[in-house]
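Appendix B. One record, verbatim.
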Amino acid sequence: METEFSPNKDLVMASKPKISVHTRIFLLIMFFTWSLTLVFFALQYSREVDFKTEVLDSRLQMENMRILDCISEGKKLSPKVLKEIGIGDSTRVSVITLSGSVIFDTNSRNVKENHLNRKEVKEAIANGHGFQRRRISSTDSRQYFYSATRGDGLVVRTALPYNHTLVDTLKADPVNSNLIIFIALLMTVLAWFTAYRVSRSVKNLRKFVEAAEYDDIDDYDTKQFPNDELGEISAHVVNLYKNLKVTSEQRDQNMRDVLFEQSEKNRIKHQLTNNINHEIKTPVHVIQACLETLENNGEALPLDTRKQLLSTAYDNVKRLSTLLADISVITRISDAPEKIESSEVNVTDIIHKVADEMKVFPPEKQLRIHIDVPENVKIRGNESLVESIFRNLMVNSFNYSGGRDVTVKLKDTTPDYHVFTFSDNGVGVAPEHLPRMFERFYRIDAGRSRTMGGTGLGLAIVKNAVSFHQGEITVRNREGGGLEFEFSLAK
């Protein structure tokens, strides 16, 4: 029996592609998916490395500022002095003149090579600071990360050697890379099934075409055509890309938030450093002037004058000591709150203790303190910080309000908080000053504040101590005169 020859059927069968539709679609999807993944990965890697480089440069810039402060104070740089101001042993420190001459280097006592052509030095002289990620030192042939800061007639440069620690610090976080790779692999699996579903529809369509060619469609099951399947798959793929885009945007936003937060921290630290330098210089200059006068003309001065000079120097020493103590407290609260111990604190006892301490002043300088707080009002917190809240508020009223009656009251108690008010009968302050009263070193009357021995940190300590206890504080002028502070402390 001879087999019937069908040219049309044989032509259709012979036209089957060598590479299946499934494979073609899969390869096409994978080409675009992995291309996008590689571009995305490269951009992510570059941004993360740049971010970590900026963070490291900011840290070294802060060290440069501390070294410049030492130089401006007349200290001679040495390994011991550098260690005292927090410069690590692995950090190389160089001091360079604006002409490029090296006048100090921790790695070499005699560096003759001119450094004016160094990238970081050029940028520091031109812009105030500069850095260079990687360069081999001509002194010890090691690779360093350099960061330079221009001061008054000098450039201070710190450098870290490229050891395993620094390399690990600057390299990109593998977590983000792994996430990108995981998403790409997930896309690979989805692409396989997507191609399979699309190719299945194409195969079904081809069978339908073959069946239609031979008019053999009577028994053809039309359910084989998933009429909305391609639309559903397309929507699914679109949603995947949308999710990927949202993930990317969220990660970028998080990175921007981290950069902004770091920038704000650097700005605040720089501002605080400038303020501290400014506040310390005044008492130091006064002490220096008094002592120099005594040293140069001590025997020729009258006894009363010498006593006055010593008294002035002593008062400024006490002011400097108080300033350093306040700086220590506010730094401890801001930078290391997790290291501050917490225990059960009896707030009532602390209020009475601080009130009793105010009674040691002469009668004409005493405050009349009215306490409207029940017995045994307790919280979980730090006793020293709670004490600093009430002491600083009382000292603030004593020094600046002009009034002599203060009232401490427990205004309200909720399941989570105790709410207190602290008010005085003084003159209050102008409304424009109220929003800034808790800023560090902010003074309404700078001259009077310094005369009274204030450091400008009292109310800043109060706000930070309240925040440490998960509370909030506000201040307003009372209708009858004076100020009223309202603050909460978490139980």
